[in-house]
Design a protein that fits this description.
The complex is a heterodimer of chains A (about 110) and B (about 120). Chain A is mostly beta strands and about 110 residues long. Helices cover about 0% and strands about 55% of the residues of chain A. Chain B has strands spanning about 5, 10-15, 20-25, 30-40, 45-50, 55-60, 65-75, 75-80, 90-95, 105, 110-115. Chain B is globular, with a radius of gyration of 13 Å. The chains are: A mainly beta (about 110), B mainly beta (about 120).
Chain lengths: ~110, ~120
């Protein structure tokens, strides 16, 4: 079983709509979670971090964390063609690793159609 | 803030030669740096973790004698691919974090082609 799981997609979203991305994790000790955006041929870019249960909003992005359900999500409001990318979910491995490694999901490809 | 640079951005080398890739944190002290490899349409694969002044720790299956990592200062880590072969052709990406924080900031990556 993968430690961080995401649907690979592609998730097709009409321009202006909300894109909803989901991620589950198996390590109950994970405390910190991150969403990265990776454009094709580029390196990942950190877009959101979340540490507490609940919602965290930053511009058009909202991250949600539910530690009891071991679930992290990312909502992208008013999706734009420039949001077309692969979104990586990552969680820390605090209890098993002291080096700050992150466990990455395989990523969800989002395609925003005009 | 939190900018990480990598050099070179791309490199072509002949089989059997060595290539060095530099990773620098420009505006923060990187207590830990990570090296990843990514093949086309595949996930990030962590190769090794390095702390400043310490030997790197390698993930299972990664040859430490082939991928030499030196984390000489709080702002610089290097990855040397020794005796490169065509199968080493890949996108190599470094990331860095600072003490007490788990966010990793990625460099722009280095595309290595071995001919």
């Amino acid at each position: 079983q993968k430690e961080v799981e995401q649907n690979s997609g592609p998730l097709s979203v009409p321009e202006g709509a909300i894109a909803s991305l989901n991620c589950t994790y198996s390590d109950r000790g994970s405390q910190s979670f991150f969403w990265y955006r990776q454009y094709s041929g580029k390196s990942p870019e950190l877009i959101m971090s979340i540490y507490s249960n609940g919602d965290k909003e930053d511009g058009r992005f909202t991250a949600q964390l539910n530690k009891a359900s071991q679930y992290v999500s990312l909502l992208i409001r008013d999706s734009q063609p420039s949001d077309s990318a692969t979104y990586l979910c990552a969680g820390d491995r605090t209890l098993t690793d002291s080096w700050g490694k992150l466990q990455f999901g395989a990523g969800t490809q989002v395609v925003v159609t005009p | 803030g939190a900018v990480v640079s990598q050099h070179p951005s791309w490199v072509i080398c002949k089989s059997g030669t060595s290539v060095k890739i530099e990773c620098r944190s420009l505006d923060f002290q990187a207590t830990t740096m990570f090296w990843y490899r990514q093949f086309p349409k595949q996930s990030l694969m962590l190769m090794a973790t390095s702390n400043e002044g310490s030997k790197a720790t390698y993930e299972q299956g990664v040859e430490k004698d082939k991928f030499l990592i030196n984390h000489a200062s709080l702002t610089l880590s290097t990855l040397t691919v020794t005796s490169a072969h065509p199968e080493d052709s890949s996108f190599y990406i470094c990331s860095a974090r600072t003490s007490g924080r788990y966010e990793q900031y990625f460099g722009p990556g280095t595309r290595l082609t071995v001919t």
